[in-house]
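Handout, section 3.2

Students often ask what a structure token actually looks like in practice. Rather than define it abstractly, here is a full record for Multidrug-efflux transporter. The first block is the sequence as you would receive it.
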Amino acid sequence: MMSSRYTPHLRATLALGLPLVGSHLARMTIHVADTVMIGWYGVAELAALVIAVSFFNILFFLGMGFGIGVMGLIAAAIARGDEVEVRRSARMALWLSIGFAVAVIPALWHSGPILLAIGQEPVVARLAQDYLRIAGFGLIAVLCQLTLNSYLAAMERTQVVLWITLAGLPLVIVLNWLLIFGNLGAPELGVRGAAIAAVAVQFSQLAAIAAYAAWLPDARKFHLFQRFWRPDWPGMRTVFVLGLPIGLTMLAEGGLFVGSNVMMGWIGTRELAAHGIALQLASLTFMLHLGMSNAATVRIGQAKGRGDAAWMRDAGVTVTVVSAVIAALAVAGFELFPRPLVGLYLDASAPQAPSIIEIAAGLLFYAGLFQLMDAMQVIALGLLRGVQDTRVPMVIAGISYWLVGMPVAYGLAFPAGLGPAGLWLGLLAGLSLAALLLMRRFWRGLARGDWTGKPAAG
């Protein structure tokens, strides 16, 4: 049990982190609804959705660095009382998010030939392109949402974001029911219906979050949307230099999982569908740690703004312990209830359902193994982003995921003949190395006084 000195940190971390966790889970649950409903529609469509979302996420990961990176900047600026810095950082992060999304939409539009070139089956590539030609426009909305979420989180205003995100779940379910299956006279659009539903929900949520950010009395002094069209080139450069390494770090990590999807597609459509289910279940628990990581970024950013090394140390210990406890609970769930969890995604009467459930349930064993390592690497990244340290973590991520994780995954899956299990063991190897090196960097830097100008006393 934590000593009394950590109690205020525990309360503050949970008060900030739980709504962020809820927002991430709600957003992820929307994706789960898409996957479940497409899984009921057809196995080929489910495999196409898995690979399409992977393609979308590659570009999303690269672009999300601006929205994530600005969180620590804003938290530190608020702690210093610098209203101008808050406005310029948030506004230029929005500019960069919009510009990036517009620039990469053509790649999503012409995704079919790319998917064929990396070995996906023609029917899967065609259906995935159908999805991405619509869903790609939602990238503008999700990147801007991410930036506004960071802006509000840095002010510790996360509850409304949670409710707005939750409101999207029933909306997407209704739209999917109408447009995927063609109910109540609506056209039966399959994966295209899922894409239309996703984009409609994403832009609705963006409008609601932007309206709240403009209305919030505590935020009016920042004048975020006043003369929004005016550029701030020094501010943009600051956000770009901080955010690009974060985007590349996210790309390295996300690319590891996307690469596993591609390689699983080489093994077979059933294996890819099963892998997508297991990976999405693992991603749901990851959202818990991601929310705590965001809370870590805000709290460590506040400490950096005040130059308080002891406060930074205690806040870091607290969020790390909380995330480790969550990871232990997730491991128990995956190892004890694999088949009931997987069974939620498929119509049990479908001909291929039993074999897919069997494969996915086996993969959940490996998903349980890397829960703690996945938690520790994302918490470490949140701690480091709070002190605006992003370049070295980018290098660590590249080495861990692409020089270790991906080669190990390929080697175990194909030359060693372990198949799907080998891919997941490769994921575990990459995540473990990243967790070790990133945690070591934050705590050694804190002990040396790198983050606040003075070392934290034990």
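Discussion prompt for tutorial groups: Residues 4-448 form one domain. How would you have guessed this from the sequence alone?
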